[in-house]
Amino acid sequence: MLRRFTLLSCALLLLCLGSALAQWRSMGPYGGNARALVFDPSNPDHILLGSGAGTLFESVDGGRHWKYFAHLGAGHDLMLENVAFDPANSRTIYVAAWSVTGEGGGFFITRDGGRNWSEPSGLRGKSIQALALANTDSRLLIVGALDGLYRSNDRGENWSRITPTGHPDLKNFESVAIDPRDPKIIYAGTWHLPWKTTDGGTTWRNIKQGVIDDSDVFSIIVDQANPQIVFASACSGIYKSENGGELFRKVQGIPGTARRTRVLQQDPVDPKVVYAGTTEGLWKTVDGGKAFKLISPPNFILNDVMIDPRNSKRVLIATDRGGVFASDNAGLTFSASNDGFSQRQITSVVADSEHGKDLYAGVINDKEFGGVFHARDGAWSQMSEGLQGRDVFDLQQSPNGQLVAATNHGLYIFDTKGQRWEPSKDVVSETPAAPRKPVRGKNGKLIISKPPQPGIAHAAFEGRAGAVALGEHRWYAATEAGVLTSSNHGKNWSTAEVKGEKGFFSISVHERTAAAATLREVWLSGDDGAHWTHHPVPGWITRIYCVTVGGDDVPWIATREGALRWVRDAQGEGEWEHVLGGLPSREVTAIRAEGDLLLAAVAGSNTIYLSRNHGQNWKSELAAPYEVTGAAVQGDSLFLATRHHGLLVKDFSPSADRGPH
Fold first, then answer.
1. Residue 283 near residue 295 (C-beta atoms within 8 A)
2. One domain, residues 623 and 485
3. Which domain holds residue 549?
4. Torsion of CA 583, 589, 592, 597, to 10 degrees
5. Alpha-carbon distance 39 to 255, whole Å?
6. pLDDT tens track for 606-641
7. Residue 640 burial (CB count, 10 A)
8. Using one digit for the tens of pLDDT, what is the confidence trace for 185-242?
9. For the whole model, what pTM was predicted?
10. Domain for residue 240, yes or no?
11. Does one domain contain both 576 and 644?
């Protein structure tokens, strides 16, 4: 259940976010999960973009540049898939949301252009996946939720159910449309089939004639000039009715494959032009649905289509992973239009050792639109050739400038000549030779032979690699199969002696000290990886998030129960010490060493913690607008990796001794 947001609490939240955004600058990499696009009817250059993680973005120049607008909901699990302006007063905005974690969601309203938001009690916590406003009466709204359809007659303040409770089929609503002339006529699509009412919801009937049974109805549009023409998109294809849904026929223009049409959008000038956003690209018909043509790359997954009402050649599309793309020629060509919008999940940040201001970022969950990004002079470019859509869990640069990526399918090294990633597959391990059977001579005496010699086995490691650490003399990799090491810059890897321990996901090295961790165990080496020793953590530690070796060669672990460091006594023995000194006592999820500086992130927190005295004392930096997962320092800049919104940057003095903010 979502936490209630009062007007006062939302105002304070937005005020704090505005202050944080003034200090921190969003810098990408841009793109990601774009879910909804809607223009302000009083000013079509003013556009709102609904994304994942409960965040709205705003453009005031027709979608060419974006900036943060609002965050809705208590966490980061809401998909803002339906956004609408009140046509009578564009300072009133409605946002419908559903949760990726289950059946939760919400409905949010602002009456002052986004400064304050409220959540009507009648829809609080509901998973809402459809929203429609009546053309004839801007006070009338319909939403589709998992448990039914709801109507408001007072601009969203109060809601009543217009579908029967407990009906076996009138549930799991995915789409809704209102007749442009008669608001009592409502079309609704469920995860099963389409429905229609002509009396405002008193009675409903299934309009499945011509529709393949068991079709999820993702989108319904009613022709503004002729309401008898109705289009519906489903997992089984696109359907058109010319008699108000009494009979549908399947549109044959799109070849039948596994694609799903998520959204339909009609050209406001020419009703014969309809765009179909599918899971395999954007399609277009110019003859009312007789034939469709693919007009985007087939790997685009469409979530929404927006057409400029002043110039129907201007088309914006919202896509999974790729963000927003724009066309100024009615879809003949598209180009990315994501400046300021980032829905990227950053796993690692690398400041280039050779080019002073260059950055590299590794991302997950974006497949072919993700991988690794490179920033030069503030401009990002994707450099993922060869990764084949793999998730990058860690990205590091060696002292000699080589980039290495740990992915969900092995280790990759960037080839600067070929400008592509090449797999580092060769894992060498010693395997004992098969034992020899005893041999006796004719006199019965045992013939003594040489002991069996070990052989060398070569294998390709293609499993999950969670992290890499690149020392001056040896490279390390934490993998699901164990710890791998390389003494020849990744050409060959060998398995480290960690007594059969598997499931490593974090590793770190400084000088000759290396540390590797599983979820519950830590292994340390003080001789450049030649020998490893198990260092058990206290029994009250339930989860290790990461391990790092500080600039003073002291190992640290970030755990569910806080931060711990390895402390040695005069006899060389040691133990794990729980560290506070300004750090929270729980859920320290990341610790990173930057020379003598230590940086720590905490789960659910927008703050990064810093220590300039090897962890004796910690101070917090100014809170960021989003949840922080890690940090990196480059010159006089501090970069934050966020949970869902790319990188943030602010001016920073590593040597300054400032108090908490």
1. yes
2. no
3. 545-661
4. -10
5. 32
6. 899 999 999 999 999 878 888 888 888 888 888 889
7. 29
8. 999 999 988 999 999 999 999 999 999 887 789 999 999 999 999 999 888 888 999 9
9. 0.86
10. no
11. yes
